[in-house]
Amino acid sequence: MNENILVVDDDTEVRKVLSSILSEEGYSVEPVENGKQAIRASEKTRFDLALIDIKLPDMEGTELLHRLKEKQPHMVKIIITGFPTLENAMETVNEGANGYVLKPFDIPKLLEIIRKHLNRETAEHISNWMEFDQDSTRNSSFDRDSVKQKSLYRPQ
């Protein structure tokens, strides 16, 4: 596993716990405490997934969702919150969140959600690559018969 995970939470303990658990699972983790740091990190590193607290000191998690979507559209974005409301959940979905997880965490469930999203994202990347590869082969003016003939012909 070489997936990069961005953890955005203003609570030091939450960042430490998530970083420790995710590192033990083999993920590369970058913990940050606010939205501005998250945006700066996303400009330097490609992240596969972000865990984003909905209440940050410098911006709402939904605003950060929107900004990260612009910077890294394929990154999986999961909102984490200790303040669950129907309004929050709907707003995060409308802003492009891939998941919504409640604090305190059920760690095995959180890890399962992360794995599921990363596996889905990997499968989509492979599928897109295969479609591109098939399209480029189909559209080439490649003549297989002439290649076979040329490979069989060897001047003496």
The CATH architecture comes to 3-Layer(aba) Sandwich
Binned strand content: 15-25%
Radius of gyration: 21 Å
**Assigned CATH class:** Alpha Beta
The DSSP helix count reads: 6
Q: Quote the CATH topology.
A: Rossmann fold
The overall pLDDT, averaged over residues, is 84
**Class by SSE composition:** alpha/beta
Going by CATH, the homologous superfamily would be Response regulator
**Biggest β-sheet strands, sense, barrel:** 5 strands, parallel
Number of strands: 5
What order do the strands of the largest sheet run in, or round the barrel if closed? 2-1-3-4-5
**SSE order, as H and E?**
EHEHEHEHEHH
Q: Ends: how far apart?
A: 52 Å
The helix content, as a percent range, equals 40-55%
Q: Flag low-confidence runs.
A: 135-156
Overall tally of domains: 1
Task: Describe, in plain words, how this protein is organized in 3D.
By secondary structure, the chain is α/β, with parallel strands linked by helices. The chain has a single domain, classed as Rossmann fold (3-Layer(aba) Sandwich), CATH 3.40.50. It contains 6 helices and 5 strands. It has helices at residues 12-24, 35-44, 61-71, 86-94, 107-138, 144-152, and strands at residues 4-8, 28-32, 49-53, 76-81, 99-102. Strands 2-1-3-4-5 form a 5-stranded parallel beta sheet, sandwiched between helices. Helix 2 runs parallel beside helix 3. The termini are far apart. Residues 135-156 have low confidence and may be disordered.
